[in-house]
């Protein structure tokens, strides 16, 4: 760098600052550092520090080399040399000073010097002499084992300096020759390469110097003055010529010391030396030809380079070279790269033989033809290269045999070679094997042709060749047998059509396909797969359009006869593509040539085609064909392709090139979307809940209600308070447990123990939604919209003004429904509907649109018809509390013309009956044991909710092992004045899934004969229900709610009530309320009334259950 007086004084940078500096330099942000610091002085001083991290020293050396043009000037090379001497001459002291550090510093210093100094001048002699002298000191210790690697690196540095500044070391060549003779370690390769480089430069640049002169000492080293005007030297004298040949003979005795990479370097210098010294190439051939039999690709490559340099010296040995290369390609144990290289070399080798016009050498290729056929299990890349060799062989075969004798042989080679890639017929058209097969077609056809000139004789020869005729027949058969290859065949033809010289080959293939393919194709709906090929045939003005027009007319007649009203879109697509080909013919052919056939086709289409748009377009084309002259007609038809800003569609024909910009959202139109876009439940609610019990505003004093404290963690977790603070009060950490008095150990009887076992098994199946996915509740709904108001607002106009036809109905696309709710239902997943057709106006009658505000009659789902104007929407809830609520629905969709619709739809009501789920069955319960398990579970829960004192303060772990449930039961009663037959019928329709057991002979007979309630426990002898409910209004202080069954002033007398509830039997119903609650119903059925005993561990649901029972059984 230049003077740094205006910069800050030298302040050592920390390792972190060095890493930041290197990163900034690599990102081009070096200005902020170079303006404040002298970077070069900082780098050199840090490298020389003994206590500086060794790993960072390597990074700084590489950084200095990478940015040498920014850090160094010619005047700063002395600083670099001083630092280099300090490191190289420092005593070995691992890990601070090692051989590796010295070697890296030598390499980087040499690289920096060569990068900075392009041309030598006298001012740079001093730093250059210092660098060379230091390196010569290092190498001047032959056979010294500890630093042999360092000496080898120093030799490489000197060789790079000799290569950059030719003949720099020519005066001390004799001294270096002596070192080569003395060195016996593996560094001898580096010494020999250095000496070879010096001799090579002397011979090439013809320097008049003696390499046997050892009178000039190596140290101190002086740069030769004549090196500045190297080009003015005279030719080599006879004495020097002899010395160079003697040095050459010495070097040829040491190939065994070279590694394959060293041999490549050595051969690159030896061959120019042999030419410069007029040596016999046979000397090199005898010395190095044996390397062709090695198993190293570098050595084989070196022999091939020698062959290309001295072709005449290897006359007669081409067979041995070719057979060796073929042998390498067929040895499966070889690396694939080596095998591929051998085939590449063989291709170049044979191309050289073909250009020599030597008949004997061409016969060499013909004699090895059987070796070129790919094996079945060869890799695909190897097959491709072997097929290239077969293509080259076919060219040689065609030019070496007399005319008329080679057609069968060439076709046989072509067909046998394709056997190895014949699987392309059954593979996808984009497969690599298909690409290789069609590449081979192209190679066989054009390998003997050139693109440089146009020769009519070559044109006729290719058109009449056996390969071309065989390829034509093969393409016809492939197109008929494997239609999925049509796009590949079209691309193959386009490759010829895109070449000015070989365009005639593509036209010949299209003509053959027109003559041989079109008469054989079957006219059906699958014919459309050939349309890309038909389009290319229609573009060629050298192919008569008659056959294609006849085929298209047959296709249109087939479409008209086989038209299906449900396939209107397919008919439109097929008709549009037919018209697209007709348009292509009108653009590329004279009107007089296709007038008769095309007019018949267009006339039939505009009269009989089932699609209206196709008929109209055919009528327009027919009028243009009749009324507009040919030249003007082509100008009009090509006008659409010249419009600026309209990108042509990938589909054929002009009917897909419609430029429709996206229209922005109009908030005024989206204001009342709920008036014509409706979402409704599939099954209406029995009770349309107009209220919901919320306890968030109630004051419970210091404590909390029991049902909110029913789940708690098994073990204290210090972070639980903040983790689940938003779970609606149902989950509490260990620190929020209710203070319970210490109780002595209790002794339980066998019955209570069995009940606890059942409860633990049941609660272990209930997931703890705090730590895992909760239980889902699905609400099926329908989305529909009315066509008439939708079209009026969003501008859809039917063609005939009648919205009852399916084709004229509007549609919406890419609909997204988003849901939200203030009720504790968790996150609700959005719903996506790709396509929805509008509902005809006749279905928008107001009948059945109005329902009762509170109660609706039972609906068995008969309204769910198979109609495309309704889309099924499944709302999935994950309740945190079994409570009714409302789900708000928001819609985002788009119309056919790209307009965006956004708005809010009607809200969906969620009732308590939506929360009714069957109890979770453990996986170890067999199917035939499920009824018994459910009955036992009902009994266990009934006892737990009715007599909590028997269970103490038992906790029941939930699934996941982190949370546990505590039972707080509540009970109530409900008298239903309804007949037994009505109650049984309604129970079978609505609650059959939740019935777990039935007791009493009359009731069992009625329900069992009905056949709806199945897989339950039937108890024909009814047990006395009074034993479970004699003390109904007890423990008032333990629960927040207590109801009396019979008041003193009640009109129903006690004896009547007892008689009515004992007359027929009991129905036991078990309902699971997510996330972990239960509802138990014991219906004591009488002839004229039924007493329902209710027990639950979620007392807020009692109010909803009361309304539900009245709506279900009393119709209120």
UniProtKB/TrEMBL annotation:
Residues 709-740 are annotated as: Disordered. One of its GO terms (cellular component) is AP-type membrane coat adaptor complex. Residues 724-733 have a biased composition (Polar residues). InterPro entries: AP5B1, AP5B1_C, AP5B1_middle. It comes from Trapa natans. Residues 241-633 form the AP5B1 middle domain. This is AP-5 complex subunit beta-1. One of its GO terms (biological process) is endosomal transport. Pfam families: AP5B1_C, AP5B1_middle.
């Amino acid at each position: 760098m230049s003077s740094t007086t205006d910069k800050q004084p030298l302040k050592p940078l920390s390792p972190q600052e060095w890493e930041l500096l290197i990163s900034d330099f690599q990102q081009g942000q070096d200005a902020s550092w170079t303006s404040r610091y002298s970077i070069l002085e900082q780098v050199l001083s840090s490298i020389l520090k003994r206590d500086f991290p060794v790993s960072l020293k390597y990074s700084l050396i590489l950084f200095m080399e990478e940015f040498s043009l920014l850090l160094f000037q010619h005047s700063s090379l002395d600083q670099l040399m001083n630092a280099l001497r300090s490191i190289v001459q420092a005593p070995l002291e691992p890990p601070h000073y090692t051989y590796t550090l010295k070697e890296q510093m030598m390499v980087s210093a040499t690289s920096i010097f060569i990068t900075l100094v392009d041309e030598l001048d006298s001012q740079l002699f001093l730093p250059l002499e210092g660098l060379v002298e230091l390196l010569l000191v290092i190498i001047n210790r032959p056979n010294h084992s500890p630093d042999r690697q360092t000496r080898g690196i120093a030799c490489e540095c000197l060789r790079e300096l000799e290569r950059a500044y030719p003949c720099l070391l020519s005066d001390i060549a004799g001294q270096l020759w002596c070192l080569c003779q003395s060195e016996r370690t593996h560094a001898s390769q580096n010494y020999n390469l250095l000496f070879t480089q010096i001799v090579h430069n002397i011979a090439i640049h013809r320097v008049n110097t003696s390499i046997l002169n050892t009178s000039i000492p190596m140290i101190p080293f002086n740069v030769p003055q004549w090196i500045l005007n190297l080009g003015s030297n005279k030719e080599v004298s006879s004495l020097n010529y002899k010395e160079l040949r003697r040095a050459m003979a010495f070097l040829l005795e040491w190939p065994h010391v070279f590694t394959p990479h060293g041999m490549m370097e050595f051969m690159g210098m030896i061959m120019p030396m042999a030419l410069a010294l007029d040596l016999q190439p046979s000397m090199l051939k005898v010395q190095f030809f044996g390397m062709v039999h090695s198993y190293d690709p570098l050595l084989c490559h070196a022999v091939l380079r020698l062959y290309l340099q001295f072709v005449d010296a290897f006359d007669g040995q081409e067979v041995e070279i070719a057979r060796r290369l073929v042998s390498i390609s067929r040895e499966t144990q070889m690396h694939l790269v080596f095998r591929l290289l051998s085939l590449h070399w063989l291709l170049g080798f044979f191309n050289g033989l073909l250009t020599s016009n030597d008949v004997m050498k061409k016969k060499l290729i013909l004699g090895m033809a059987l070796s070129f056929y790919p094996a079945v299990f060869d890799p695909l890349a190897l097959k491709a290269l072997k097929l290239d060799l077969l293509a080259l062989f076919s060219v040689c075969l065609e030019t070496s045999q007399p005319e008329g004798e080679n057609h069968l042989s060439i076709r046989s080679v072509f067909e046998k070679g394709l056997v190895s890639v014949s699987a392309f017929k059954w593979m996808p058209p984009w497969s690599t094997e298909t690409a290789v097969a069609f590449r081979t077609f192209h190679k066989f056809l054009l390998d003997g042709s050139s693109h440089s000139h146009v020769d009519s004789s070559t044109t006729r020869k290719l058109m009449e060749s056996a390969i071309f005729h065989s390829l034509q027949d093969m393409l016809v058969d492939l197109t008929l047998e494997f239609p999925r290859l049509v796009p590949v065949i079209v691309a193959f033809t386009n490759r010829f059509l895109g070449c000015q010289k070989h365009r005639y080959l593509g036209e010949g293939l299209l003509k053959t396909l027109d003559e041989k393919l079109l008469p054989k194709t079957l006219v059906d709906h699958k014919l459309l797969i050939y349309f890309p090929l038909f389009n290319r045939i229609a573009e060629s003005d050298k192919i008569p359009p008659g056959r294609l027009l006849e085929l298209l007319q047959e296709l249109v007649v087939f479409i008209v006869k086989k038209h299906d009203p449900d396939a209107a879109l397919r008919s439109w697509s097929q008709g549009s593509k037919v018209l697209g080909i007709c348009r292509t013919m009108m653009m590329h052919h004279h009107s007089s040539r296709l007038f008769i056939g095309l007019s018949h086709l267009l006339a039939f289409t505009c009269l009989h085609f089932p699609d209206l748009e196709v008929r109209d377009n055919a009528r327009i084309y027919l009028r243009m064909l009749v009324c507009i002259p040919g030249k003007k007609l082509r100008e009009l038809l090509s006008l659409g392709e010249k419009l600026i800003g309209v990108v042509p569609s990938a589909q054929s024909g002009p009917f897909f090139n419609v430029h429709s910009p996206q229209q922005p959202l109009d908030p005024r139109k989206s204001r009342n979307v709920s008036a014509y876009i409706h979402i409704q439940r599939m099954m209406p609610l029995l009770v349309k809940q107009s209220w919901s019990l919320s306890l968030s505003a109630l004051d419970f004093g210091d404590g909390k209600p029991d049902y909110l404290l029913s789940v708690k963690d098994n073990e204290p977790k210090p972070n639980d308070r903040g983790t689940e603070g938003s779970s609606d009060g149902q989950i509490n950490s260990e620190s929020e447990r209710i203070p319970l008095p210490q109780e002595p150990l209790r002794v339980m009887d066998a019955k209570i123990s069995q009940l606890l076992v059942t409860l633990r098994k049941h609660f272990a199946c209930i997931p703890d939604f705090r730590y895992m996915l909760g239980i889902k509740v699905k609400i099926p709904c329908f989305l529909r919209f009315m066509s008439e108001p939708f079209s009026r607002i969003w501008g859809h106009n039917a063609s005939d003004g009648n919205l009852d036809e399916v084709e004229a109905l509007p549609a919406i696309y890419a609909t997204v429904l988003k849901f939200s709710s203030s009720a504790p239902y968790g996150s609700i997943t959005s719903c996506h509907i790709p396509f929805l057709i509008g509902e005809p106006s006749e279905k928008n009658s107001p009948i059945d649109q109005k329902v009762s505000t509170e109660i609706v009659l039972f609906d068995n789902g008969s309204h769910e018809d198979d109609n495309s104007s309704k889309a099924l929407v499944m709302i999935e809830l994950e309740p945190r509390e079994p409570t009714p609520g409302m789900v708000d629905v928001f819609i985002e969709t788009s119309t056919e013309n790209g307009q965006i619709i956004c708005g809010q739809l009607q809200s969906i009501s969620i009732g308590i009956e939506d929360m009714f789920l069957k109890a979770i069955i453990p996986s170890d319960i067999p199917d035939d044991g499920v009824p018994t398990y459910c009955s036992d579970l009902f009994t266990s829960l009934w006892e737990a909710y009715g007599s909590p004192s028997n269970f103490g303060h038992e906790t029941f772990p939930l699934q996941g092992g982190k949370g546990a449930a505590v039972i707080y039961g509540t009970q109530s009663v409900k008298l239903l004045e309804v007949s037994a037959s009505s109650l049984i019928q309604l129970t079978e329709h609505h609650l059959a899934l939740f019935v777990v057991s039935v007791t009493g002979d009359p009731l069992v007979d009625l329900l069992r004969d009905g056949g709806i309630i199945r897989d339950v426990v039937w108890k024909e002898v009814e047990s006395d229900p009074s034993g479970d409910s004699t003390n109904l209004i007890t423990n008032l202080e333990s629960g927040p709610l207590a109801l009396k069954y019979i008041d003193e002033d009640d009109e129903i007398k006690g004896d009547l009530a007892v008689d009515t509830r004992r007359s027929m039997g009991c129905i036991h119903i078990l309902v699971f309320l997510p996330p972990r609650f239960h509802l138990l119903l014991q219906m004591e059925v009488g002839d004229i009334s039924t007493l329902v005993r209710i027990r639950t561990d979620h007392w807020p649901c009692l109010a909803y259950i009361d309304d539900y029972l009245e709506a279900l059984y009393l119709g209120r």
